[in-house]
Design goal:
The structure holds 2 protein chains of 2 kinds. By secondary structure, chain A is an alpha+beta fold. Chain A contains 2 helices and 5 strands. Chain B is about 35% helix and about 15% strand. The chains are: A alpha+beta, B alpha+beta. The structure holds iron/sulfur cluster.
C-alpha cells in the first residue's frame, strides 16, 4: 500500500559544497530548514520535486521530507532530518557554525 | 616502505586528470548526477549527510611522516582541520568541496597516495596487522604480501565490477590483530612442517547484515602460489556471486549457498588452470621485499622508567617489539570528549614529527582507529610520551573500555539509522576515571550506526548497533563477540535501548562483570565465556529477571 502523503518539504544537497539545502516558496534554495516551503498537496509536492530533479546543475539527490509548521518556519519531523538541518553533534561544523 | 615507481606515479596522476575533467563536466552541466556518481565513487568521493566525503586509502595502514604531513595539510587547506581514521585503516575527510577534490587528489599523488578503489564493487584497500614488521610474535612482515596484493588488485580489469565489494586482510602473526576472519579473504601467515612460511587462507567472512566468520579453504598455501590462488577465488566469486540481490551478493553467501567443499573444488580447479598460465613476478616480488627491509636499529642503553605517568602509559599503550630494546607505541585517538578516530591537523603533524624522529619514519593506522608508532627505542619512550601529552594524545587507554571503535553514524553517514559518536562519548564519559578503567581491564566496545557494521559491532565484546525504532534511535546490544584469532560473532542480548538508556545499560553490564569475574585477571570476554550470556542479560534487563523470579 502506498504511504499516505503528509506535509513535506523538498530538500537536497548543494552540488558544489554538499551543503543541505531546502526549496523555498520563492523557488530558490536556502540553507535554513525554516525557509523551506511546506507542501500540503501531494500533486504540488511531486511537481516541485520533479522540477528540482531537473536542476541537477545546482543540487544533488532532491527528495521529499516530512515536516510541520513551527515557530520559526518549517521544522523537521524525523530525527535524521533534524540532524541534517543542524549539523553533526560532535563539532559545530555544520549549520551550527552558520548561526 | 614501498615507494611509487614511474608507472605507479603516472597511473595515479592520469587518474587525477581524468577525474578533474569529469568534475568540470559535472559542474558545467554536461554530466547528470546519475552519470557522475559512479565516476566520483571510483575516486572515493561520497556524498554524505552534510557534505561530500573523500575516503583516502592508506594501504595496509602504513604511512610515512611525509604522507601524514600531507594529510594534515589537506585537512587544513581543504577541510575543517581534521581527518577521521576508519576501521578500514583509511582516512576520511568530511567536508571537501567538489571543486577542490581534483586538487586534493593531486596533493595525495604528490606523496604516493590516492582514493582509488575505496568505494564500489571492487577489491578494496588491503588491510593488515598494524603491528606489521614490528610485532614480537610475527612469522613474517605481512606488508610485502599486502603490497603485492594491492598491486595485483589495483585496476585489475577482470575484477572492476564484482557482484559486491571485496575485502582482503593479511596477518603475519598467529595472534590475529587484522580481524582476518571478517574479510572476504583472510591470509594468515603460517609455517608448514618444513618450517617454510606460507598462508592459511580463509574465505567468506563478513559482518554487515549477515555476519559470518571466514572458513579455512586452504591450510597451507605456498607463498609463490598466492596470486594464482587469489585470482582463482576472485574468478569463482565473479562467476558465482549473486547479482540479483545486493544483500546476498558477498562471497559469504556463495559459501553459505554452495558449501565450503563445493567452493573449494571450484577454486582448486580455477587455481590449477591459473597456475599453468601464470609467470611468477619474481622481479616485482624482489623489488617489493627490498622496500620493507628492516630499519637501522638504534643502539642505546635502556634507562629505567621513573615517572608514574610514563609507567602507566607503558602498561597500556606500549606493546612488545621484536627487538627487546624497542617498543610499539599505540597513540590513542580516544581521549575523553573526543570523537573516536579523529585527529586534528596539528596532531597529525606532531605524529609525523615523532615518527620521523623516533620511529624510523613509520606510522600505522589500526583498524581500532588509533595511530601506531611501530619502532620506538625504549630510551625514547619518555620523550615520545611527553610530546604526545602536549597535544592531548597520551591517553593511557589502549585496549581499555574507553578505547571504543565507533563508525561516524548519523552524525555524518548517509546510510546510518542512528548516531554512534554520542554513544561512544557517553560511555567514555561514564568510565572517565582511569583507575576504574584499569580495574575493568581489557574490554572492547564497538559501535555501528547501522546494519552495515563498519564499527565491527558483531566482534565487540560488547557490540552496539544503532537502529531506528518507532521514530527514535534505538540501540541493540550484542555480547561475546571477538575479532581476534579466537573470533566469534556476538550474540544479540535482547530488545534495544533508547539513546538515554544505552550508557546505563553498558554500566550495568560492566558492574555485573566486576561482580562475576573469578579474579582481576579474568577479562570480560573470559568471564562471559565461562558463564555464558545469561547473567549479563539479567544485568541488562533487570525487570525481566524480577518478573521471572
Ligand atoms: S555502519 Fe552504517 S552508519 Fe556506520 S559508517 Fe557504516 S554505513 Fe555508515
Amino acid at each position: 500500500m502506498a504511504k499516505k502523503f503528509k506535509t513535506s518539504i523538498v530538500t537536497a544537497n548543494d552540488l558544489l559544497t554538499g551543503d543541505v539545502v531546502y526549496l523555498t516558496a520563492a523557488g530558490d534554495w536556502s540553507l535554513r530548514h525554516g525557509d523551506a516551503e511546506l507542501l500540503t498537496e501531494e500533486a504540488q509536492a511531486q511537481t516541485l520535486l520533479r522540477a528540482a530533479e531537473e536542476q541537477y546543475d545546482q543540487v544533488v539527490g532532491p527528495y521529499l521530507a516530512e515536516a510541520e509548521p513551527g515557530p520559526d518556519g518549517a521544522r523537521p519531523i524525523h530525527f535524521r532530518e533534524a540532524f541534517r538541518a543542524r549539523g553533526p553533534s560532535n563539532y559545530p561544523h555544520g549549520k551550527q557554525a552558520q548561526g | 616502505m614501498y615507494q611509487y615507481d614511474d608507472f605507479d606515479d603516472t597511473f595515479v596522476r592520469e587518474r587525477v586528470e581524468i577525474f578533474r575533467s569529469q568534475v568540470a563536466r559535472r559542474l558545467d552541466g554536461s554530466l547528470t548526477e546519475d552519470e557522475f556518481k559512479p565516476l566520483r565513487l571510483q575516486n572515493g568521493l561520497y556524498l554524505q549527510l552534510h557534505a561530500y566525503m573523500l575516503r583516502v586509502a592508506i594501504p595496509y595502514g602504513t604511512l610515512s611522516s611525509r604522507q601524514m604531513r600531507q594529510l594534515a595539510m589537506i585537512a587544513e587547506r581543504w577541510d575543517k582541520g581534521y581527518g577521521h581514521f576508519t576501521t578500514r585503516q583509511n582516512i576520511q575527510f568530511n567536508w571537501p568541496k567538489l571543486r577542490d577534490v581534483p586538487d586534493i587528489l593531486g596533493a595525495l599523488a604528490d606523496v604516493g597516495m590516492h582514493a582509488i578503489q575505496t568505494s564500489g564493487n571492487c577489491v578494496r584497500n588491503v588491510t593488515a596487522d598494524h603491528f606489521a614488521g614490528a610485532a614480537a610474535d610475527e612469522i613474517e612482515d605481512p606488508r610485502p604480501t599486502a603490497e603485492l596484493v594491492r598491486q595485483w588488485s589495483t585496476d585489475h580489469p577482470e575484477f572492476a565490477f564484482l557482484p559486491r565489494k571485496f575485502k582482503i586482510a593479511v596477518s603475519g602473526s598467529p595472534n590475529d590483530r587484522a580481524v582476518t576472519k571478517s574479510h572476504d579473504i583472510g591470509l594468515r601467515m603460517v609455517l608448514n612442517d618444513a618450517g617454510e612460511p606460507g598462508y592459511e587462507v580463509s574465505v567468506g567472512g563478513g559482518l554487515g547484515r549477515t555476519p559470518i566468520l571466514a572458513q579455512v579453504i586452504r591450510r597451507f598455501l605456498p607463498k609463490a602460489d598466492l596470486l594464482p590462488y587469489l585470482e582463482a577465488i576472485l574468478q569463482v566469486y565473479n562467476l558465482r556471486g549473486r547479482r540479483d540481490n545486493k544483500h546476498k551478493a558477498r562471497l559469504k553467501i556463495v559459501l553459505h549457498e554452495h558449501g565450503l567443499e563445493q567452493v573449494r573444488l571450484w577454486v582448486e580447479e580455477a587455481f590449477q588452470a591459473q597456475r599453468t598460465l601464470f609467470t611468477p613476478p619474481d622481479d616485482l616480488i624482489r623489488k617489493i621485499a627490498a622496500s620493507f627491509t628492516e630499519p637501522q636499529w638504534k643502539d642505546a642503553p635502556v634507562p629505567p622508567v621513573l615517572s608514574p605517568g610514563v609507567a602507566q602509559f607503558l602498561r597500556t599503550n606500549v606493546a612488545r617489539h621484536k627487538r627487546l630494546d624497542h617498543a610499539i607505541v599505540t597513540v590513542s585517538l580516544k581521549a575523553r570528549g573526543e570523537t573516536p578516530g579523529d585527529a586534528t591537523a596539528e596532531q597529525m603533524r606532531v605524529l609525523a614529527n615523532l615518527a620521523e624522529r623516533y620511529s624510523h619514519d613509520e606510522l600505522r593506522i589500526s583498524h581500532e582507529q588509533n595511530v601506531i608508532l611501530p619502532h620506538v627505542h625504549r630510551a625514547d619512550l619518555a620523550a615520545v610520551h611527553a610530546a604526545l601529552e602536549r597535544v592531548g594524545l597520551a591517553t593511557p587507554n589502549a585496549g581499555l573500555i574507553s578505547d571504543i571503535i565507533s563508525c561516524p553514524g548519523m552524525d555524518y553517514c548517509a546510510l546510518a539509522t542512528a548516531r554512534s559518536i554520542p554513544v561512544a562519548k557517553g560511555i567514555a564519559e561514564a568510565f572517565a576515571d582511569m583507575a576504574r578503567q584499569r580495574d575493568i581491564g581489557g574490554l572492547k566496545i564497538k559501535i555501528s550506526g547501522c546494519i552495515n557494521a563498519c564499527g565491527h559491532h558483531h566482534v565487540g565484546h560488547i557490540g552496539i548497533l544503532g537502529l531506528e525504532k518507532a521514530g527514535v534511535e534505538s540501540y541493540q546490544v550484542t555480547l561475546g563477540g571477538d575479532g581476534t584469532e579466537t573470533a566469534a560473532i556476538g550474540e544479540r542480548a535482547g530488545p534495544g535501548f533508547s539513546a538515554d538508556e544505552i550508557v546505563p545499560a553498558v554500566e550495568r553490564l560492566v558492574e555485573a562483570y566486576l561482580a562475576l569475574r573469578a579474579s582481576r585477571d579474568e577479562t570480560f570476554i573470559r568471564t562471559y565465556r565461562r558463564l555464558g550470556a545469561q547473567p549479563f542479560k539479567d544485568a541488562l534487563y533487570p525487570e525481566v529477571k524480577s518478573d521471572a523470579a
